[in-house]
């Protein structure tokens, strides 16, 4: 570009010279005029060269900015964050994250008095949950989750597609219905190694269906239509149920309050005659159920419950009650009850998290490896399950429990549990057990989740 500029300048100079300058010598006056023209041209050339240099510098800067911007945009286009496992996100709305958990338990059960010999006594251990899956988002507000438990073959836990917009979430596939605060809170984040007795006894589990949840401020409304668990669909079951849950969760200063209620109706369809409520003695590795209704002829199931909880700094407390009514043709309709009250406090500077109408895990403020000792929490619970009503004598269970939880770093926990469980109206439920007796259980768990 500079060479072209020199040639153009030379041509302009020759064009300015009078034709006679090459034919005869210049006079003094003509020579002076020509010199002035050359001086003016030199000044113009200097000015033009300065402008050219400025243009070239500006172009170079623009190219550098463009290259930096391109690199920055490339960085923003795809990001990878670590949340127990790598989560990959793109600028156009795609994301992908592996997820899973491993929970391993070591337990012991002893009868009170020790002269009673009942099944399940002594030491036992098991892999409580081993799950792997993926979750992520899809452009347009869509998302997905697929997770399976690998303990006994491959058992699907969650398998759904969802859509979110302006506080509304719609889900289609297998997922949790809306039966209880503790049931909806992840087993990774519970205060004890097992949930309250009624959640398992009344058959709470994930089911295939379609649901919608709408949250506006402190108000959360959830409702859905569900059939059976995906593992039961191949058996030709045709049950169908309706679920609804309402939650009010305002802030009281720094404290988080939770108040809720739920209602559930189910037509048992092909399951008529196979409805049964029963429960283990807190620890899952003991397969004996000391409280058990046996199979009941039933057409429909109606359950309803109340929830309350508070998180205030290191302290939390929660209470739930749930009733299960069995509707039977030509027979009395028994109603069974389950409920629990618990309280806990962190010994470290940590707190229990809460979001979207459920409890969440602790975010360790001083993790091990960074100069801290992790999060330490103690909890106590009273747990009641009554499976005796009308003509059904399934027994009663009263549990008095305590737990110690150490979370050294996020995604890793160790739990130590003790439970004293007292049984009544239990004659004949377990061979060799009297009508009224007690058991002591100790359970320990190591877990990692991501």
What features would you describe in this structure?
By secondary structure, this protein is an alpha+beta fold. The chain folds into 2 domains: 2-75; 83-449, Porin, CATH 2.40.160. 16% of the residues lie in helices and 49% in strands. It is built from 4 helices and 23 strands. The protein has helices at residues 2-16, 28-77, 181-184, 197-201, and strands at residues 78-82, 86-90, 95-112, 122-138, 142-149, 155-165, 168-175, 207-216, 219-226, 240-248, 251-252, 255-267, 278-279, 291-292, 300-312, 315-327, 335-346, 353-355, 358-360, 375-389, 392-409, 412-424, 437-449. The strands form 3 sheets. The protein has a 16-stranded antiparallel barrel. The longest helix is centred in the first third of the chain and has 50 residues, at 28-77. The protein is elongated, with a radius of gyration of 37 Å.
What oligomeric state is this?
single chain
- Overall radius of gyration: 37 Å
Beta-strand content estimate:
over 45%
> Roughly how much helix do the residues carry, as a percent range?
10-25%
Average residue pLDDT:
90
The rough form would be described as: elongated
Strand order of the largest sheet: 3-4-5-6-7-8-9-10-12-15-16-17-20-21-22-23
How many beta-strand segments? 23
Largest sheet: 16 strands, antiparallel, barrel
């Amino acid at each position: 570009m500079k060479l072209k500029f020199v040639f153009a300048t030379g041509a302009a100079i020759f064009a300015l010279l009078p034709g006679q300058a090459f034919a005869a010598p210049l006079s003094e006056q003509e020579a002076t005029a020509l010199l002035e023209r050359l001086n003016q041209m030199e000044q113009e050339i200097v000015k033009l060269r300065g402008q050219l240099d400025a243009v070239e510098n500006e172009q170079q800067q623009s190219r550098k900015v463009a290259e930096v911007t391109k690199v920055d945009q490339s960085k923003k286009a795809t990001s990878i964050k670590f949340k127990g496992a790598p989560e990959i996100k793109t600028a156009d709305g795609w994301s992908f994250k592996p997820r899973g958990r491993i929970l391993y338990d070591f337990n012991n059960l002893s009868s009170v008095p020790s002269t009673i010999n009942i099944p399940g006594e002594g030491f036992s251990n098991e892999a409580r949950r081993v799950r792997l899956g993926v979750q992520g988002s899809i452009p347009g507000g869509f998302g997905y989750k697929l997770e399976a438990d690998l303990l006994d073959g491959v058992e699907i836990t969650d398998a759904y597609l969802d859509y979110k917009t302006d506080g509304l979430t719609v889900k289609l596939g297998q997922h949790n219905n809306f039966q209880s605060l503790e049931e909806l809170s992840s087993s990774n984040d519970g205060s004890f190694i097992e949930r309250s007795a009624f959640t398992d006894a009344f058959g709470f589990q994930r089911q295939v269906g379609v649901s919608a949840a709408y949250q506006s401020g402190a108000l959360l409304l959830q409702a859905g239509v569900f059939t059976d668990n995906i593992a039961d669909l191949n058996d030709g079951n045709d049950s169908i149920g309706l679920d609804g849950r309402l939650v009010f969760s305002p802030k009281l200063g720094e404290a988080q309050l939770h108040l809720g209620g739920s209602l559930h109706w189910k037509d048992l369809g092909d399951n008529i005659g196979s409805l049964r409520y029963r429960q283990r003695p807190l620890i899952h590795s003991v397969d004996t159920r000391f409280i058990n209704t046996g199979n009941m002829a039933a057409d429909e199931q109606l359950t309803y419950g109340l929830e309350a909880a508070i998180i205030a700094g290191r302290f939390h407390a929660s209470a739930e009650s749930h009733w299960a009514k069995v509707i039977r043709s030509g027979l009395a309709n028994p109603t069974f009850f389950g409920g629990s009250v618990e309280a806990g406090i962190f010994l470290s500077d940590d707190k229990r998290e809460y979001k979207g109408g459920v409890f969440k895990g602790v975010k360790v403020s001083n993790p091990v490896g960074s100069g801290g000792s992790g999060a330490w929490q103690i909890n106590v619970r009273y747990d009641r399950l009554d499976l005796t009503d009308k003509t059904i004598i399934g027994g009663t269970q009263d549990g008095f429990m305590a737990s110690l939880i150490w979370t050294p770093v996020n995604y890793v926990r160790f739990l130590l549990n003790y439970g004293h469980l007292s049984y009544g109206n239990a004659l004949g439920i377990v061979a060799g057990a009297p009508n009224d007796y007690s058991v002591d259980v100790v359970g320990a768990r190591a877990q990692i989740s991501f």
